[in-house]
Design goal:
468 residues; 23 helices
């Protein structure tokens, strides 16, 4: 149900917002015009950051794993070139805090902070403040650590205070950074789940509108001055087979029950507005007087009603916009899947499987992982992909500052897919991103992205980076 076309679109949208406001975390820079005190403070600052990194690889958690190595702070620290330099610097030994590594790691492991960390981790909660708390409550209060600091050449109390100021600023900058990929991927997953929800909600409309109409007919029959039409209504609408087949589908039944999906409970007024619009439509009037009755005509009726009446109803579109920021972009694709579902309900061979699963290859299949993988490829290699784009702009003598940021994101995502997914046909990838460019960027963006890829890809083939 969620196909790669939609996944690509959602990944591009998320990358746009993520990279637009990205504020990567970095360690403090060496002070300008360093005095003896500043040099001492900065070197001590780097040593203590390095100490925290070493401790992350010493503290054993559940299942004999090292959970602190996967904290966002340590991951960001390890990506900084200065930590790589520290590794080289102390590769032959002489790390001043080496004697306390064992006792500090044990103190961390036994601390309430670490127990809370593991508890929160099991519940999927973010624990970004862990290392600041460890630094302030375990490391810097440790008598052995302070004794080592006093024996470092250039020691002074003001130098230690300056180091603490740098450490405090480091943690503040870390919290303010916008490079938390895990949060972005949760947003991507949430967006996929909302698309699935929209699909089910659109399928639920024929079911709930039919129930509402049945209730109306029953009320009309029991009116004090019921007319002949009230007593003998045309039942063709409520006997349409499509709503009944949807309602009996196990996939639909399980989803609606588990998620308490009910248009009538959430917005009964909207349901009444939609039913009134349907009853006033020419589609309904023609269907009502047509003497023929079969599953194909029943399916065609709901297909026409969805496209011509429901998806053009202002109240319905406003409702979707209010309920989810994702739904307006998802509506066209999800509606196309609903139309396919109606078609599948026409045949006894496909009726039981007509309601589509979230991913055709299951929740652990390639499609389910595709969006997160693609996002990670772009973020991880964005500087490389950006260089390819800049070289292409220079080669074609295009002005880089006139290139829309969305065009950059779309081209980078196309490159990530082409390079990392050799099983996807090259032209299929190119065509998909040209269409995304047409939909989400400027009028000429499709041609522009196509032109960029046409310049970049031959070079990547020559270099053996892509083989297709």
């Amino acid at each position: 149900m969620i196909n790669r076309v939609l996944i690509r679109m959602k990944t591009v949208q998320l990358l746009y917002s993520y990279l637009l406001i990205e504020k990567p975390f970095s360690l403090e820079s060496q002070p300008s015009a360093p005095t003896k005190e500043k040099r001492f403070a900065y070197n001590l600052y780097l040593d203590l950051i390095y100490l925290m990194d070493k401790l992350a690889h010493q503290v054993v958690g559940k299942n004999k794993k090292y959970p602190l190595t996967q904290t966002r702070f340590i991951l960001r620290v390890e990506s900084d070139d200065r930590m790589k330099s520290m590794e080289i610097k102390y590769s032959g030994g002489n790390f001043p805090f080496a004697p306390v590594l064992s006792s500090l790691s044990e103190a961390i492991k036994e601390s309430l902070l670490f127990r809370e960390f593991e508890k929160n981790k099991d519940q999927g909660l973010v624990t970004d403040s862990f290392w600041e708390n460890i630094f302030n409550n375990v490391i810097i209060l440790n008598p052995q650590v302070n004794e080592i600091i006093k024996n470092i050449p250039g020691y002074s109390l003001s130098g230690v205070d300056r180091m603490k100021e740098m450490m405090d600023l480091t943690f503040k900058n870390f919290y303010a950074s916008k490079d938390n990929i895990s949060d972005a991927l949760k947003t991507l997953e949430q967006s996929m789940n909302k698309a699935r929800d929209l699909y089910m909600r659109l399928l639920a409309l024929p079911v709930e509108l039919t129930r509402l109409r049945l209730d109306q007919l029953e009320i009309n029959k029991n009116k004090y001055l019921a007319t002949s039409e009230d007593l003998n209504p045309n039942m063709k609408f409520v006997r349409n087979q499509i709503p009944e087949l949807i309602e009996k589908n196990p996939e639909f039944e399980e989803y609606t029950e588990k998620n308490h999906l009910s248009w009538r409970a959430e917005d009964p007024e909207l349901l009444n507005i939609l039913l009134e619009a349907i009853l006033d439509s020419e589609i309904y009037k023609n269907y009502e007087v047509d003497p023929g009755r079969d599953i194909r005509k029943d399916s065609d009726f709901w297909r026409d009603i969805l496209v011509e009446v429901i998806l053009n109803n202002r109240h319905f579109l406003e409702y979707l916009e209010d309920k989810s920021v994702f739904w307006n972009d998802d509506l066209e694709i999800m509606a196309s899947f609903v139309l396919k579902t109606f078609k599948r309900l026409e045949s006894v061979d496909t009726v039981s499987s007509a309601v589509m699963p979230m991913y055709k290859d299951g929740e652990h299949g390639k499609d389910a992982k595709f969006g997160a993988e693609l996002f990670n490829y772009v973020v991880r290699n964005k500087d490389i992909y950006r260089k390819y784009i800049e070289d292409a702009l220079i080669h074609e003598k295009w002005e880089a500052d006139r290139m829309a940021f969305m065009d950059v994101i779309i081209t980078m995502t196309a490159l990530a897919e082409i390079i990392n997914y050799p099983e996807i046909p090259l032209q299929a990838s190119i065509n998909e991103y040209i269409e995304i460019a047409k939909s989400y960027s400027s009028e000429k963006s499709g041609q522009f992205v196509n032109g960029l890829l046409a310049t970049i890809l031959p070079k990547l083939k020559e270099e053996g980076i892509i083989m297709k």
